Amino acid sequence: MAKKIITRENVNKYPKIVDRRLEQLRFSFEEQKAEAIAVSFMPNIRYLTNFSGSNALFFIMEDELHFVTDDTYEEQIQDELYPLPNLYTHITRDPWIYLVENNVFKGVQGISFEADFMAYSEAVEIRNKIRPIKFKPADNLVSRFTQPKDPDELIHIKTSLELADKVYNKMLNIIKVGMTEIEIANEIAHQCRLAGSEGDPQDIIVVSGPRCSQVNGNPSHKKIKKQELVIIDFGCKVNGYGTAISRTIAMGRVTKEQKTMYESLLKARSLARNEVRPGMFGKHLDTICRNSIKNDGFGAFFKHGFGHGIGLRAVEQPIISYEITDQIIPEECVVGVEPGIYISNKFGMRAEDVFLIGKNGGEMLLPAPEQIAII
Fold first, then answer.
1. What is the pLDDT of residue 1?
2. Cα–Cα distances in Å, from 237 out to 13, 76, 152, 241, 335?
């Protein structure tokens, strides 16, 4: 039986950007030729409802909102769900049959769903359960509206960055020659927890020496040697918001070649902050900064996209890459830009700046060091 939600705490409080997101989604009904939207991707459900569990569906209709989960979360939703207007909760283990049998979809002829986050086989199964209602796939249905961040959300992001920066500086006094990459990764995870992080927003990357040419290499049992570079890529999570930072560390002397390469990365990051504008295509920003690295002679060694959005996931839209043509960078979103240079079987380096997109460019939230740190 449906219940109108009454939360135990903060009954009248939630980020007002949620109203804006719901309004934008309702405006998209006509575009989708549907009368309802089904949100199934858990980070997007959290952006809209604050639910932090792992199993739920959220339905947006013209005059009502319906949140569905199972009985393991019956108590949790009373503490977490935003008190949104006309929000009803349903507890069931067979949500689609339940919603049809309880006539929740009365008057609905079409439901749009997040096709980029749902397997085809699952969509077919659901379509068979709700016939004759049409189940309509849509890409980028919700994520485009969750990119701009509310001031409350920015507080969590900034705090997570502060924690990550604190851990990075502490690791400069912990990392030693002879430690293995796995030992360093485990210590990073430990220090993040001690600093107050809720968890790892991504798998921790630690690579060293020739393995630095692996863009997303997993930590190994390789021991750190003198005169090697080490790349660490990790983050912290605060109230669900997870950020990650990339840093390059030298175990001893930095060569002239390495200094020149790092200066090229610094130049590209500065260019990104100065050139970015809300409404700009991510591909265009990537091209501007990639050309800078190319003009320095290192274009062949930059092997991934220039950057990405940050929020409930350490990597989310907008994706800033020359390979993706439809990503627009909106105002009020947070992005990380992380150019890298990777020379096979020799070494690699990466450094990440994080900034907020403002009307006139990027507002720096956390800059990478201007020089390679030396231990």
1. 53
2. 22, 20, 15, 5, 16
Amino acid at 254: V
The count of C-alpha atoms lying within 13 angstroms of the C-alpha of 70, restricted to the half-sphere facing its C-beta, is 6
User: Tokens 């997993």 label which residue?
Assistant: 218
Domain shared by 210 and 78, yes or no: no
- To 10 degrees, the CA torsion angle through 185, 187, 192, 196? 150
Asked if 235 and 160 count as a contact pair (C-beta separation under 8 A), the reply is yes
Contact (CB, 8 A) for 279 and 330: yes
Q: Does the predicted model carry a pTM greater than 0.90? A: yes
Nearest partner of 244 among 322, 321, 308, 289, judged by Cα:
308
- Of 146, 172, 205, the last residue of a domain is 146
Q: What is the DSSP letter of 223?
A: B
Instruction: Quote the CA–CA distance of 57 and 171 in Å, as a whole number.
Output: 41
Count of beta carbons in the 10 Å neighbourhood of residue 100: 14
Query: Angle 14-15-17 (CA atoms, 0-180°, nearest 5)?
Result: 140
pLDDT level of residue 13 (50, 70, 90 thresholds): confident
Return the structure tokens found at 339: 């150019």
Residues 93 and 155 in one domain: no
pLDDT digits (tens, 9 = 90+) for 328-351: 999 999 999 999 999 999 999 999
**296 and 216 within one domain:** yes
Contact 302, 235 (CB under 8 A): no
Q: Find the domain containing 258 and state its range.
A: 151-374
DSSP symbol at 64: -
Asked whether residue 8 carries a pLDDT value surpassing 90, the answer given is no
CATH, residue 172: 3.90.230.10
